Amino acid sequence: MSGLHMSTACQADDRQASFVFFVAVMIRALLSSFKFDKAALVLLVLCLLTLVPLLVVVSGLGRADPAIWAHLVDNQLPTLVRNTLGLVVLTAVFSLLIGTSLGWLVAMHDFAGRRWLEWALMLPLAVPVYVMAFSQLGLFDYTGPIQTLLRGWTGVNVQAFFPLRSMVGVSLVMSLAFYPYVYLLARNAFKTMGQRALEVGQSLGYSPRRAFWRVALPMARPWLFGGVMLVVMETLADFGAVSIFNFDTLTSGIYKAWFSLFSLPTAQQLAAILLLVVLLVVGFEQYWRGRRRYAAVGGASKSRRVVLTGWAAWRASVWAGWVFLLAFALPVGQLVVWALPSLSVWCWLRCV
């Protein structure tokens, strides 16, 4: 058995050495084929540095532990993959819905509070997603102020209405942190086309709502798709938020394989699976963009916003304000409340 183990280890070392030799040969061929100036050489060095983590991941592919992998396949890996894919899809969908609707309202309409909401809706980007998750859990968990207040008012256990530790709950919290990626690109896309897109729709006999779905939204797809790709990458790479919610994904599985199973090669192999998912997403994005061609609808005229009145203006202000409240004001307010006890005068004097 020991001889077989040594033979397997030697084969793995040979494969790693062959891979490193192949990379070295490719780099040497690249350097000998082109004449680089200083800027290109610096760029090449930076690119090579970004390959180091990938090489570390790939280096562990030939050192699989059959016992650990049998345990993972039977007990954990299906759940990790299912949770990761489900979380990515739901977070992308929620972020797309929130970001697109807000971008359309802010870029094409005028309503109460639009001027400050236009920049305030970007502020969730300043809150790290794990801080967002911790604050939301403190606010809406069973012992948090929201559920405690509702139980006191109604006398009913409302925990079922706040499924924060489920896939839907985690994806909603993460979408509140990541929707600005879609919002920024959607707002710029709709600003670029201005009212011309609606005018094109009206010339085709469309109502304003149908013109949005049939003209403006299809033209904004490249921007929206770019924002969704950023959301997908952020969701795949997240470790802090899913750990706070105790929601197992591939990133948390990598950590547990390394520090609980004490198997660095297994962690590298799980990271390779995550890397494969990223490559598939990037490949799909390139394929999707390559098969479509878009033309911009715009002009020199200044974009005119539609002034909303009555019920429509109220709905727009409430929706945008509600998102800002959940995504920034409440989490930051919770952090301030937690920090206040340490900001007393006595503590300040002692620190000074």
Automatic annotation (TrEMBL):
Membrane topology: Multi-pass membrane protein
Ranges of residues in domain ABC transmembrane type-1: 81-283
Entry-linked SUPFAM superfamilies: MetI-like
Matching Pfam families: BPD_transp_1
Alphabetical list of Gene3D superfamilies matching this protein: MetI-like
Keywords, sorted A to Z: Cell membrane, Membrane, Transmembrane, Transmembrane helix, Transport
Transmembrane segments: 16-34, 41-64, 84-107, 119-140, 160-186, 223-247, 267-285, 306-329
InterPro entries: MetI-like (IPR000515), MetI-like_sf (IPR035906)
GO cellular component assignments: plasma membrane
Domain of life: Bacteria
GO biological process: transmembrane transport
Annotated localization: Cell membrane
Annotated family: Belongs to the binding-protein-dependent transport system permease family.
Protein name: ABC transmembrane type-1 domain-containing protein
Species classification: Bacteria, Pseudomonadati, Pseudomonadota, Betaproteobacteria, Burkholderiales
